[in-house]
Each structure stands twice: as C-alpha cells, then as structure tokens.
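Example with several molecule types.
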Amino acid sequence: MARKRTRIDIIGDMLLAIIKKKGEIKPTHLMYSSNLSHSLMNSYLEELIEKNLVKKIQRDNRDYFLITDKGYEFVQKLNEMREFERAFGL
Amino acid sequence: MLQLVYTPKWFYGEDIVIDIVSIIVLLVIAGFSLRYYFLSRKRNNLWLGLAFILMAAGLASKVLMNFSFYYKMEFIQTLGELTLTYQVTNVSDNLFYTGYFLMRLLTLLGLFTLYAIYHRQSWQNILLISALIITGTVYTQSAYYVFHILSMLLLLLITLKFAGNCLKNPCTTTGLLAASFSIITISEIPFSLVALHPNFYVAGESAQLVGYLLLLVAFVTILKHGKKKNKD
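Resulting structure tokens for the full complex:
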C-alpha cells in the first residue's frame, strides 16, 4: 500500500502537474492531476499563491494557474531532495 | 605518555588535511539533509543530518588530537624553560586525550545514529547502546583497535543497507553511495593494524580519503540527477 503523501509531496505534485501542462493549467485539470478534492486543492493553492510559487490569471472568463520562476526553482529543489532520499534509501 | 599515534613522520599534517576534507564532505551532506528536514519535516532527514554532524565532529576531534601531538615537540624546543615546558606538555596532553576520547565517542554515536535510521530501535535499545558506547569509549582508551572494530561493524551494517538499496533502485547514485561506504568501511581494517606498522595508518587514511571523495561525487551526482529530472 502506498504511503500517505506529506504536505510537501502534495505541493510538489501540484507544481509538477502545472509544469506538465506547459506551465499553465485549469483548476479542474489540476484537481484531477494532483488527485485532490476541490476544497483541499483550494487551500493549498492559497498557500502557493501567497508564497509566490503560483499565480492566478483570468483569460476568456476562465481561471488559469501559472507556475512562477520561484515555483520552478522550488520544484528543482524538491527533485534534488527526492533524488537524495532515493539514493540514501530514506 | 602512552603512544596512541602511529603516523610515520613524513605523514605528519597530511592526515589532518585528509580529515578536514572528510569533515567538509560530511557537513555539506548534513546541511543538505537538514535543509530538506526544515522543508518536509521528514524525521529521517533530521537523523541523517545529525549522524553526519556527529561523524564530522568525531573527525574534528581527531584533527585536534593529531594537531596537539604533532606540534607539541616543536613548541617545547622553542621555549626551553623547564617549568614552562612541563606546563605546555600538560596542556597538550589534556588536549590529546580529550580529542582522542571525543573522536571515538562522537564517531561511534554518529555511526549508531546512521544505523538506527535504517533499523528502527526502541528508546530502551537506544539508551542501552548509547550507554555501552560511552562505557566502552571510557574504558578502552589503550585498546584503540576496539574503536576501529566497532566502527567497521557499524559501517558494514550501514553499507549492506546501501548495497541493498542499490539492488532495489539500481542507478549511478545508489551505486556510488554503496561504493563510497564500502571503501570507508574497508579503511577501518588498516587502522586496526597500525600497531604492526605505521604505513597501515597511511593506507587507512588514503582509503578514507578515497571513500569520502566518492561520497562527495555521489552527492554531486544526486544534485545533477535532480536538476535533470526538472528539465524532463
């Protein structure tokens, strides 16, 4: 059975989902890609926007979420840390 | 004074440089692990960071011990006054024994902490083993080889874990990590035999340097792989 995701794992999954959609994603796609409920996704998004890892834009009356440069750097750090965890068997 | 250092004269100072390189490698990795802990709050990263810090502190104590031993004679010759010479010897002797005690204690505690990450221990076991390490360190002052044998045993168990991880997740980083710890483990063998010939000490230090440099290469490769994943 897969272990429960930590907070940082969820944030990482959300940012990766946005990167996979070429840096821009609709809320529904983000919810399904990161496997979260709507309310949980919104609570995490608030934090991500507050920390300037993600920004919200409106286009054609639709909301989109974009990953910022800081968000890309964060994902890079996260990948390094996951690789570290994997190498050390943690 | 009981001679506990068997370094050939030509190697004086070289081993200090090797130990400083090893300390830097350990602290770099410890810093990274602790940075990850503050971000993710994953306890294993905290313990890994602390284990490496303890091992680095053990090596730093060894540097202190060797430094006080190598540079004691030169200091005595420069001074010349009998009373002053005795006082200098007394101070550097205390430094030597303190360094020697701390080196063994901190290294063993660091290795045990690293071991305990992969083999969960109850708090009773941790208390008992820590007490055994402290007692063993205090009462085996002259039997230096006991420390090296215990270190080798702990390192062997840790290396087996890394080797198992390498088989489970075969890639460059896990391989390099297993290889580096294998070499560090092997370096304890010549250290246990220094009483036979001083060149064993040189062999041990050389193997230790190779092991820690390989550990650094493993760490740099981990960072490179992490960056590469991002580009993918």
